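Ticket #4471: structure output looks truncated?

Reporter: J.K.
Steps to reproduce: submitted the chain below (186 residues) through the standard prediction queue, then opened the result file.
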Amino acid sequence: MTDIDGYLEQVQRDALFLCSDQRMDTELVDRLVLQLNRIYPQILNDKEAHRFRNLSVPTKVRLEELLKHLQRKGEEACHEFYRGLHIHAEDVYFSLPTRVKRREMAEPKWTNTVAARRERYALNNRGPIFFLSCFSFAVSLAMLYYYGECETLRGTGPFLHCSVAGLGSGAKDALISYTEVGNKKK
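Returned output as attached by the reporter:
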């Protein structure tokens, strides 16, 4: 189906589905006929509306005749039928084969997953290496703080003085005060 398909072609494609769908009951067909008759008498005059509302004829047969009549009337009549169907039975309208196909063409399934992947990585665009390096730096600082009291790692003061070069002022003050306290204990 292409975008240039008119309502006439869509009615031809959807006719079998409409005639076999259980949701197209007598009441719905009557409402569609009444709307076409009252609002668009040039599409469906009183005599034709009376014929399509005849309850002695089965609903399926009346609907088939109505669709054939609308196809003979042309593009505008088919368009107004779809408008009426959309107003009176939205669930039937959106389950029509032409509507389902159009929706699938507008939203292919693979584009949704690509967008989801982009959103997932939007907060962390630096990758796993950056995360591992930050995590290892934090662990090494924690180990230096925890084991800095023992004699084997007493020489961490110069390292901490050099490592504060790229940190913020609060972190610099904390690390420098820690090394000064460690130097006073010696």
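Triage note (M.O.): checked the attachment and the full token line is present. The chain has a mean pLDDT of 78.
Status: closed, working as intended.
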